[in-house]
Amino acid sequence: MDVQIIMTIVFCVVCIIMVITIISMSGSRGMSKMMSRTIKMEKNILRDNEKDLKDISTRSAKIEEEAIKIKAKAVKDGLNDSESSVYCKHCGALIDGDSTFCKKCGKEQ
Question: Which residue ranges make up each domain of the chain?
């Protein structure tokens, strides 16, 4: 999310610079100079922010990695709290704690 904010700010700054330059220059020669200046400014902005963008990307990747580990553990654990699930007395299947009958073998608990 931080990357999106920085990229939006960079984009807005570049657009403002382009609008100001277009207003101040006219003709095809002026447009050529404007495009050249704009390209140089965009390169400078990206170069100046490259380290920050890499840091943000790395932090975001680590956060996502941690979230994936947590979700994988939850799936592995069956997404059930130990208090809300019990094992069937007859077949050993994991069932809801308030179930009267086992969903696997059908026997009463």
Answer: 2-77, 80-109
